[in-house]
Amino acid sequence: MKIAIVILNWNGEKLLEKFLPSVLKHSNVPNTEIFVADNASTDNSIQFLKTNYPTIQIIQNKENGGFAKGYNEALQNVNADIYCLLNSDVEVTENWLQPIISTFKNEENTVIIQPKILDYKNKLKFEYAGAAGGFIDKYGYPFCRGRIFNDIEKDKAQYNDVKEIFWASGACFFIRSATYKKLGGFDEDYFAHQEEIDLCWRTQNNKNTIKYVGLSNVYHVGGATLKETNPQKTFLNFRNSLFSLVKNLPKKSLFPIIFTRLVLDGVAGIKFIFELKPKHTFAILKAHFSFYKNLSKMLKKRNKLNQKNDYFLVKSTIWRYFILKQKTFYDFIKN
CATH 3.90.550.10 region(s) of the chain? Predict the structure, then answer.
């Protein structure tokens, strides 16, 4: 089984300098290669790699097409059975690859895997982008084992398991190359954020399985490209989530769920105003206008496979979190 670890870089020389050593040190597994796919950086990233890491293969994309297009273009130049798409701000640990490779070998229908993702700045806690595996509610709002909205749990070995999940984090995303190619990779209209959720949803509509493997640990900085406080991140997350709903929801529930979701987004916009974050309210408005503009295109992309009716784990994260005050994954699944 040939593994390709592919790190997407854009003006990230300092991140490469800090985090590449752990990848090289702990990825000495047979048939494993390391690539850096550069999204037309204007800093010294390429020269830094050539000078300090001559064994690492460099793929130079012609433009900064974001996460989605960047990986789609780069992976055309990578020959492997398994792609590991690894953020440039991730520190890996000893034996991080072995449990994942073993799962792929033993489970033919498992096509995407995520490890345990912990916070690089506070290694006792899970990290926002993925934690211990992702799920969504009926209206497309994502949450994780170990992270509900901004409430993040400490790692107390409560998720040291192997678990089927709905989506795997793009921060450290393993996928069989055959699956990636069959489904056409990431949707480039997303640019960045939540394109992995869409790909995972399409994967499950293809009747394949996505797993979390808790014996593999990595540490993620998070927000190295766009901070949580950046309105552009709010725009991409809200818009792209709507894209995924349109593309993947069962036909009979498409309109009522989209309508409800738009109303809930409006409530979120009002909440941002009361929190004195008007730029985020405008980001949601901008996301909705972009959604309407692209609606026809997204409808044409609707998955031709059978859409899953049981895609959500809970009906409403907003109700459970803000009204019932359920702040952990285990609270969510109690009733």
Answer: 3-220
Query: Measuring CA to CA, which residue among 187, 197, 173, 303 is closest to residue 246?
Result: 303
Q: In this structure, what are the phi and psi dihedrals at residue 76, rounded to the nearest 5 degrees?
A: -65, -20
**154-180, pLDDT tens digit by residue?**
999 999 999 999 999 999 999 999 999
Residues 111, 144: Cα–Cα separation, whole Å: 19
Which residues, other chains included, contact 245 with Cβ-Cβ below 8 Å and sequence gap of 6+? 139, 140, 254, 257, 258, 261
Residue 169 carries which DSSP code? -
- Give residue 204's identity as a one-letter amino acid code: Q
Q: What is the CATH number of domain 3-220?
A: 3.90.550.10
Q: Which residues pair with 5 in a beta bridge?
A: 34, 84
Nearest partner of 4 among 149, 143, 173, 130, judged by Cα: 173
- Spell out the residues 6+ positions from residue 28 whose beta carbon is closer than 8 angstroms to its own: none
pTM score of the predicted model? 0.95
Contact assessment for residue 247 and residue 308, using Cβ atoms and an 8 Å cutoff: no
pLDDT per residue as tens digits for the range 272-312: 999 999 999 999 999 999 999 999 999 999 877 677 788 99
